[in-house]
Design brief:
Elements (H helix, E strand, L loop, with lengths): L18 H12 L5 H8 L3 H8 L4 H6 L9
Helix pairs in contact: 1-2
């Protein structure tokens, strides 16, 4: 007989960073003022998102230089 415990299911929070945060993080990283991990922690940006923007793989950022979410809640 196994015991099933109720687990609280929480929703993930996405896009907690702003376009200013991304801009500051990219400038700070390119000027070698802090490392990759430190920039991610300091500006609260996910590593995969920051890596994509640094490598200029984000099509939206390459075309219009727009950072952050376009969602209006």
């Amino acid at each position: 007989m196994s015991i099933v415990r109720n687990k609280k299911i929480t929703r993930r929070e996405y896009c907690r960073w702003t376009s200013e945060d991304m801009g500051h993080a990219i400038n700070t990283s390119k000027q070698n003022q802090c490392g990759f991990n430190e920039c991610c922690r300091r500006y609260n940006i996910p590593k995969s998102t920051f890596r994509r923007h640094l490598r200029s793989l984000n099509k939206k950022a390459n075309e219009n230089v727009v950072f952050g979410s376009t969602h209006n809640f």
